[in-house]
Write a structure and sequence with these properties.
19 strands, Tribbles/Ser_Thr_kinase_40, six-stranded antiparallel β-sheet, alpha+beta, Prot_kinase_dom, globular, 3 domains, Transferase(Phosphotransferase), domain 1, three-stranded antiparallel β-sheet, Phosphorylase Kinase, domain 1, mitogen-activated protein kinase kinase binding, single chain
Length: 345
């Protein structure tokens, strides 16, 4: 008997930033708590934004655009509405009129800031343009992006292998650099990657939100369970178990690659409990429309046993990524990436 309970606890009269999903995959099994980030209710949904004139402007789900447009940060940036499907806000440099984006976090978010500065050299990760400290919050200013990968794949239904290979190689390189520098990304998904150019050929990781900076780079055992349901790995669903953060990231990469090439998620269900049961079994079908090398890489990533998954160091040497083949010609896979918030929001 599968059951799932969604908890949305109240804290001081306002909603918490994440949704806690408790799921038992079979009768008598202990409940597993999974923290599911809610982009429209993340820590960027702070109670108020404060300008240098100490004028308080409330920000919340019902905030009007007029109120948002009156929000000034440090007499330098004007804050606008939230970017669709993201935890960032649009903003503009008042003097230069340059369009940027802003992430608002608590002043205790040291891990996020330190992770960004640790990887500031990497062109595949959005660099922090400026950090502004005000009262209880930090305002992280980032360059503006040109759309996210989830929306792009959904609009295209699926990507040709030649295009997917170029984009996925950039994603794999990003994960490899993070792991090499002792950073586990967690909550990896299509929407986390945004386009740095108008031609949509260059990807960047939007932010290192939810990332963990390991105290010892070679020890990546984690116990905090969080992520978008369709992307979580089987070991995260085991009650009370520690898991390898890097191996969990590789599973999420497998979901990303599958979705880019097929146009749907490898594990699909409208109910959390049924979805988690499918993920725990680890059974999925790869359409024959994909090349043999692409199918091989997907299977190398979506292995139930974490120790059997390909690593971030080895993935770049996989034949599908390492060799430039002529574009794979096959019958169409007429699928569409769901718009449901259960998966990529």
């Amino acid at each position: 008997m599968q059951n799932v309970r969604i908890h949305e606890p109240q804290t001081g009269g306002r909603r918490v930033i994440d949704k806690i999903v408790e799921v038992s995959l079979s009768s008598g099994d202990p409940l597993v708590k999974l923290r599911v980030p809610q982009p429209r209710d993340l820590e960027c949904r702070v109670p108020r934004v404060t300008s240098d004139r100490s004028r308080h402007v409330p920000l919340g789900p019902n905030s009007s655009e007029k109120l948002l447009q009156s929000s000034i940060i440090a007499d330098k940036y004007q804050l606008f509405e939230q970017v669709e499907g993201s935890s960032l806000y649009r903003c503009m440099d008042i003097n230069s009129k340059e369009e940027l984006v802003c992430k608002i976090v608590s002043r205790e978010s040291h891990s996020l800031v330190s992770a960004h500065y640790k990887l500031d050299f990497n062109s595949r990760i959005s660099s922090i343009h400026e950090v502004i400290a005000r009262n209880r919050y930090l305002y992280l200013i980032f360059p503006k992006a040109h759309g996210d990968l989830h929306s792009y794949v959904r609009s295209r239904k699926r990507l040709r292998e030649s295009e997917a290979k170029k984009l996925f190689r950039q994603i794999a390189e990003t994960v490899q650099v993070c792991h090499e520098n002792g950073i586990v990304l967690r909550d990896l998904k299509l929407r986390k990657f945004v386009f740095a150019d108008q031609h949509r050929t260059e990807l960047k990781l939007e932010s290192l939100e939810d990332a963990v900076v390991l105290e010892e780079p070679d020890s990546d055992w984690l116990h905090d369970k969080r992520g978008c349901p369709a992307y979580v790995s089987p070991e995260i669903l085991k009650a009370g178990a520690h898991y390898s953060g890097k191996a969990a990231d590789m599973w999420s990469l497998g979901v990303i690659l599958y979705t880019m090439l097929v146009g749907r998620y490898p594990f699909n269900d409208s109910e959390h409990a049924s979805l988690f049961a499918k993920i725990s079994r680890g059974h999925f079908v790869i359409p024959e429309c994909l090349s043999a090398r692409a199918r091989c890489l997907i299977r190398s990533l979506l292995r139930r046993e974490p120790s059997e998954r390909i690593t971030s160091d080895d993935i770049l040497y996989h034949p599908w990524l390492a060799k430039e083949d002529r574009d794979w010609s096959s019958k169409a896979c007429d699928q569409l990436v769901p718009e449901s918030s259960l998966y990529d929001d």
